[in-house]
Specification:
Blueprint: H1 19-24, H2 29-34, E1 36-42, E2 45-51, H3 65-81, E3 88-99, E4 107-117, E5 121-130, E6 135-147
Antiparallel strand pairs: 1-2, 2-4, 3-6, 4-5, 5-6
């Protein structure tokens, strides 16, 4: 049985995305479900926050690690999308998370910056903080940039 999605993708064409395209990403799908609110959108820095509610916490009352990883992965992709070549698409190739402390409180925030911007890959570092500004996690991810004309 084939299921039809009710949401139209924000964009399907290759090449760099505009800040406006990026700002639309949290308005639907999984990023909307997570409640991601973008604060800064630029090719050099993406920052966002989530107002924590019951869907975000684990069984001991801290923000679930999957929420933290998903937030960071979303921001790294948003950064990579702005830095693509004209015929490129991107996807996460690798991700590594170091959890430093439990993320507690009513809000988490994240800031993501590029460590490497190459033709075929980009590497992003995201720091996730709790509402008190304490670092909860560091996430490093590599985005692969594939040439849509070579596919």
């Amino acid at each position: 049985m084939t299921r039809t999605l009710s949401l139209a993708p924000i964009r399907t064409s290759p090449g760099p995305w505009s800040g406006e395209d990026i700002r639309r990403m949290p308005t639907q799908g999984f990023q909307k479900f997570l409640g991601i609110v973008l604060d800064v959108v630029s090719p050099e820095c993406i920052s966002a926050h989530i107002e924590v509610d019951d869907r975000h916490i684990n069984s001991v009352g801290a923000v679930h690690g999957g929420v933290i990883i998903s937030l960071a992965d979303s921001l790294g992709a948003m950064g990579a999308l702005q830095n693509l070549g004209s015929t490129h698409r991107t996807s996460t190739l690798e991700s590594k998370t170091n959890f430093v402390r439990p993320c507690l409180g009513a809000r988490i925030s994240a800031e993501c910056q590029p460590l490497h911007l190459g033709r075929r890959t980009s590497v992003w570092h995201t720091v996730v903080r709790d509402g008190e500004g304490r670092t909860c996690a560091h996430v490093w991810q590599t985005q692969i940039h594939t040439d849509s004309q070579a596919l």
